[in-house]
Amino acid sequence: MRRLLINLVILVFFFTLPWWCTAVACIAALFLVPPFWEIILWAFFADMFYGIHGYLYGIPFFATIMAIILFLLSLPIQKRIMRRE
Amino acid sequence: MNLQSHNRGSSRTHYSRWYTVFIFIAVIILFTLFRSFWLQIFYDVSTPFVFVKNSISSSFGNLTSGFQSSQFLAEQNSELKQDIDHLNTALLSMQALETENTSLSKMVGNLSAGSPRKTVIAQVLFAPPSSPYDTLIIQAGVKDAIAVGNPVFADDGTPIGTIAEVDGAFSKVSLYSSPGTSLSVIVGKEHLDASAIGEGSGNFSMKIPVADAPSVGDAVYMPQFQPTALGAVSKVSFAPSDSFATVLFSFPTNIFTLSYVTIDTSITITNTYAASAN
In terms of Cα–Cα distance, which of B202, B206, B232 is closest to B219? Predict the structure, then answer.
């Protein structure tokens, strides 16, 4: 339920607020509802929806790559949070 | 007993993890294969959000305007009057240029000079900072005869970008200021040819030999859209030992507040090189 609510909030942010608000919400969700793998999907949607053929600075799927890196970097912290819960 | 339930639990976690990975890959493959279809759904889903966002921002603007002090309004009024004077002067020189241009075009027998421009006005659904890519998503597409490469203008006539992707009822505009985009421009009264690089959010930079460096306030044009300026030089910086000066300029129009744009469907621009859209 909490996960769904957070995803709904991100959906609203995605369409209404500056991109960095959505990014902050996604990063917060990484630690609120671990493992928040949806961050990769949201980044993929941003690449497809806002990017020109998914490119930025000549890098395809820039946001998706950044999200995967963030997700992997946050995994040890996410695991610790899950163990505590 | 405990070991059995533990094993059952861990295998369930194992399966759910694979299930998540499977759904994840399936979504990405489906999205990539039927991109146009999914984007259409995305645009349709986004429309009510845009409507609500625009309504809220306009009503909020009306609400706060009542609280502005009279002194502030008086100052703003005098500034606007000064702006009108400047614009009137600029308009006169533009009219003179237009007359000269028309007569010169007739002299060289340029048939296209008299042909009417086919323009389409479109609502901007998403603009920076909503979009992280210096792109605009506009409510006009194939059904409005829009094609990839058509130039896009702001409401004051400033050329701001080109159509990069077209769908049925929506299009994506790549702004000239998109990071990494290279653009041929003419700078200043000397009509110096230069290459401007997009820096994002409506800003550009270019390297010009120090000897030819323009002054602050000099206009920057795109050869196709003269005499409409792309921007005015805002900063020129170089060290005494440098052979090239760094020149910065930006769009005269604020891309964050764009509501409508005009698309010229009779021209296709080919002289921009977007490193991001090869």
Answer: B232
Query: Chain A residues with CB inside 8 Å of B13's CB?
Result: none
Contact B272, B181 (CB under 8 A): yes
Question: For A53-73, how does the pLDDT look when each residue is reduced to its tens digit (9 = 90+)?
Answer: 766 666 778 888 999 999 998
| Confidence check on the interface: ipTM exceeds 0.85, yes or no | no
For an interface test with A, which of B134, B182, B276 has the most A Cβ atoms less than 10 Å from its Cβ?
Answer: B276
Question: Which DSSP symbol is given to B215?
Answer: P
User: What's the distance, CA B129 to chain centroid?
Assistant: 11
For the whole model, what pTM was predicted? 0.70
Q: How far apart are CA A62 and CA A52, in angstroms?
A: 11
CA distance from start to end of chain A = 16
For the stretch B161-195, pLDDT in tens is 999 888 888 899 989 888 888 888 888 877 888 89
Q: Does A65 touch chain B (CB under 8 A)?
A: no
DSSP notation for chain A: -HHHHHHHHHHHHHHHS-HHHHHHHHHHHHHHSSS-THHHHHHHHHHHHHSBTTEETTEETHHHHHHHHHHHHHHHHHHHHHHH-
Name the residue with tokens 């909490």: A2
How far is B226 from B220, CA to CA, in rounded Å?
A: 9
- B247 to each of B79, B206, B231, how far by Cα in Å? 28, 5, 12
Query: In this structure, are residues B231 and B252 in contact, taking their beta carbons and an 8 Å threshold?
Result: yes
d(CA B65, CA B45): 32
Cβ atoms B166, B151 nearer than 8 A = no
Q: Does A2 touch chain B (CB under 8 A)?
A: no
Amino acid identity, position B210 = V
* Helix (H/G/I), strand (E/B), else coil: B243: coil
Confidence of residue B277 (pLDDT cuts 50, 70, 90): very low
Residue with tokens 């609280």: B67
